[in-house]
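G., before I forget:
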Amino acid sequence: MELLQSKLLMLFGRIPEFDSQAVLYAFVAGLITGWIWYAVAGTVWKASISQTAGFHSPRRYIFSAIAQIIMTIMLAITIRRLGETTTVGGFQTALMLWFGFVMTTTLVNYANIGQRLILSIVDGIHWLLVLAVMGIVIGTLSTGNLTPGAANPAPAATTAPANTGGTSTGTTTTGSGG
Amino acid sequence: MAFAGMSTIAIVVAAAASFLVGALWYGILGKCWMAALGKTQAETKGPDGPVASLPFVIGIVSQLVMATVLAGLIAHLGANAVTVRSGVISALFVWVGFVATTLATNHGFQGAKPLLTLIDGGQWLAVLLIQGTIIGAFGV
């Protein structure tokens, strides 16, 4: 994970900090949660989609694992940037992201192509569980790793020049989005 | 007009603008999208009956929810963070971290063509960037 951080640093110059150990645990917990969910709801899921070829292609599993590690890193950055480095804070941040961005886009995408509502529910709950578990793990593990004020820097450190149209160059504003 | 650090006018304008961008996106790429989907227009009405207005209603409500949460997220970064730059960066982060990842995974396991993922993913990127820009431009 440190290697990934250093590679990202080389590529982009500077990246928002995240707790690599918390990310690793959260990623594994998220994967296990996903497997358990589809072991439970897999039959319903398979019945609700039209295409059934290539379910167990290794490429798909590798691809989804890469996507999930990106998601875990972004979740860790978001939790840290919002200063929600507690178990409850991590859970709430994950819930907000799921409700605002994951469930909305999933619902729209499936409605547009005439998928059954049950598919939105099965996939939506999957992401809810994955994000909630990852948020709890990151929030819990991050608690002891932050120095006071590091998660939510003092206003003086983040203050952008007024009326610059968002052209601030402070390190804490860079990549502060997630 | 602001609610918990969020401008309600910005949220409504952002949702409306992004809905128009989405309509324009699929207006331009509609044929490619249908080809990538591998379905006829009639088949996209769904097995639960042809309710033509349902996707539009879901689309409008979802984009309003999305704009509200994005505005809340940007506002939580601090009053000084509600700028166009911060709005765009936040939108990009959200797209990379939570929209593109979930979309690609869902499509991947359903056996969807990569072109469909690109078109749908591109639409959400455009939607989020427009929302982030408008929310940031309105400020608190």
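Chain A touches chain B through 58 residues (CB under 8 Å). The helical segments of chain A are 2-12, 20-48, 58-82, 87-112, 117-142, 155-158.

More on Monday.
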